[in-house]
Amino acid sequence: MLTTTAPAAAAPVVHDAPPVAARRLLTGYFAGLGALMAVWGARMPAVQAAAHLSAGRLSLVLLAAAAGMVAGLYIGGRIAQRYGPAVLLTAPAVGLAAALAALGACRTLPTLIAAAFGVTHGLLDVGANVASVRCQDAYGRSIMSSLHAGFSLGALFGAAAAAATVHTGHGRVFLIAGLAAAAAALLTAPAVRSITALTPPLLDARTAPREAADPKHSQAGLWLLGALAAAALLGEGAAADWSAVHLHDLHATATVSASAYAVYSAAMATGRLAGDRLTTRYGAPALVSAGALLATVGLGSGLLVGTTWSALMGWACLGLGLSTTVPALITAAGRHGPRAVAAVTATGYIGLLAGPAAIGALASLAGSLPVALALPVLLAAAVAAASRHALESPR
């Protein structure tokens, strides 16, 4: 996974102007991806009820989506390396929208598994993230947190829309969301030229990374970054796929249950919008560690108290606390070059994809979803403990 050559560090790149059009387009793609994922996650109880799935069988659906996304990530990585990220924007976005619309018509476990939601998600995610690394290089300063804020804002909008349409059949909601996303992708297709124009920065051999002399230390550092990304993204996956189910099990109304992910997304968007400024002021190690501690205490307390409002507060703390973790980890991986960024990101997706399925399996075994949700709490604590070392250690 993390076998990389020691790339030279990027020297400052001079541009006539920052690629504003590319940044706006990528923000839109992240927002659209967040909205689609939120609609899917917020209406998960309706999907579960329509197909008569237990928590364990629902976890099989999530596991199939995870396997599909891993395949999409692998294929997309090879495509992006050969042809660039621009080819992984319009077509995968339309495919993802179509897959969501198809999921609305699925009423059995096999059809839910066969919807190919994960594969198209993986392809689009690779395209957006590789393009974002190039866009940040072109800007010459950190913009990763604000780009990821687009995903959170989109997720907030999607979750709010799902809550507002809770009395509308989920199949109709999925169809409308899919059609809207496909139309947006097709309408913005000409703007993808702004992504094509982004090229990797020239490398300066005088600033070669220090890990060139110690590749084993470099690889260990990348493994740690990847593990922390997986831990943080497991929390995000838990919020997307299980927060609504958690509130539903606490006898919250359908509207309140569907709004749980909106609360999480609003908190995460707030943290990410302020992330670049806070990182500059306090430094990534301190910010990420303190945020992960907030996530641990907040969600843990919400699970222990076990009321609707404490649960909502817990999901909010998880979102705010982990908001800057992934952007900071990607930035740290960027010191090793683009291949390291791809490796750490792919490792992080293991938590995002397999985590919700693992939580479903644990809930089935323990007979309690709150017990299973202790997993993201424990992993947030691990991020709090290890992030300073991962982000401060010389690489």
Can you tag this structure with a few keywords?
single chain; 395 residues; mainly alpha; Growth Hormone, Chain: A; 18 helices; 77% helix; 0% strand; globular; disordered N terminus
Q: Termini separation (Å)?
A: 18 Å
| Model regions low in confidence, pLDDT < 50 over at least 5 residues | 1-16, 201-213
The CATH homologous superfamily:
MFS general substrate transporter like domains
Structural domains: how many:
1
CATH topology: Growth Hormone, Chain: A
The CATH architecture category equals: Up-down Bundle
Total number of strands: 0
Instruction: Report the average pLDDT across residues.
Output: 84
Shape: globular
Would you tell me the structural class of the helices and strands? mainly alpha
Q: Any idea what the radius of gyration is?
A: 20 Å
Instruction: Return the string of H and E elements.
Output: HHHHHHHHHHHHHHHHHH
Description:
The structure is a single chain. The protein contains 18 helices and no strands. By secondary structure, it is mainly alpha-helical. The chain has a single domain, classed as MFS general substrate transporter like domains (Growth Hormone, Chain: A, Up-down Bundle), CATH 1.20.1250.20. The two termini are 18 Å apart. Residues 1-16 and 201-213 have low confidence and may be disordered.
Summarize the structure.
With 395 residues, this protein is mainly α.
